[in-house]
Here is the input.
Amino acid sequence: MIASLRRLLHRWRIVIPDRLRFSPALRWLLYHRILRFRASRRPEGAEETVKTIEDLCSAARLAVSADQILSVEKRIQALPVAPNEASAILGESDGLINKVAVLKPHNDATGERGVIFISFEYEWAKLLGARNLDEFARRYHLVVSPTWTPPHSAVNCLFPEIFPEPVYCLISNVTDLGTFPRLSDNYRMIDLFASSWVDPKLFDPLPPGERDIDLIMLANFGIYKRHHVLFRALGRLPDTWKVVLVGQPNGSRNAEVLLSEAECFGVRDRIELRQRLSDEEVCELLCRARMSLICSRREGSCVAVVESMFANTPVALLKGAGIGSAKFVNASTGAFLDESRLATELLGFHESAAGLSPRAWCLENGLDAKSSSRRLNDFLAADCQRRGLPWTADLLPMHWRPDPRLSHPQDAPWLDAEVRKIYELTGIKMEVSHRSGAE
Here is the structure.
């Protein structure tokens, strides 16, 4: 009796905060509380201004309507920030950028610019602590890939105002194509996602009849991944199903936390939890699964969606999910399921999944890394022509697993020397990978 009560209380501690987190009424109240109490005074000095921008961005991420977001953005635009002062505040750096790929070297003889690709805001913010930032911007085109939607953050608002040249920016959601230019007119938007860089060669899909995993969930253990949604449904699914969770800790949420949540829903013995796997192991598990599930209601692009598709594993998202890669879910690649009827709809999806062809659809529609590299190259070449800048050498193709890297680093004998040149110029080391996608 006491054990049952403890499990019930544990479930409530999981489900109730989750419902409150997505409650429009509570988000509306928190939005107005921030505007009234945390961002109401006109800030004095750069530090207060940046803090106010961070508060306003928090309000934007809580907004429940487009009008609320636009109102916050107008208030951010009205705040004066001296670029050099903001740079000193945001540009704290450990001198190392990890999530980076050098796609093209600077040509010392002709002055033709190189191209550097950086993912995650906290990574490209490190450039603000660089020496000779103006010279760096004259030598390299910068392409960045954001992480979340809505993308409002102090870095995303201020970085393009500080960086001396246009910032080429990918998207996490199609809505970003409109949002980023409102944050700064120094953005040049590119209709590519973090999930646009999956290398099909990493996956060797098994035929439907040879797949031994009924459902796989590829997600870190963060609270926003909402594993509990699957746990609630799992008790009403066949106990013969093999269900595999693949991920890694997120902050304080480790495997023990996840297993305790599964225990309180009575499904601890129904899941196989795998963590900190190699890229090869992750790809192999995806290729063995009959279907994949994502339970998030809001995040960024979600690369796992397209990785599942290239494993020829149909993927299910929740109806209304604010996930960028939802754009690619259709009758050929997956389905949108009703969270309130998840067990029933997972049963139906399990039966129909073998008839879908997500990998073929992705290849036919150019969703692979090679096609995306070509699109990025064409965009930059056209923009350079428009700006009167030279473009005689094309980009080397890249892919993304788990970070951006050159697809064929053997084609870049200049890579180590280029990284040294960047370090000598800026004082920042770029930790590029020398592994290829096929390894």
Q: What stands out?
A: The mean pLDDT is 94. The chain has 17 helices and 15 strands. The two ends are 54 Å apart (CA to CA). Residues 200-364 form a domain with the Rossmann fold fold (CATH 3.40.50.2000).
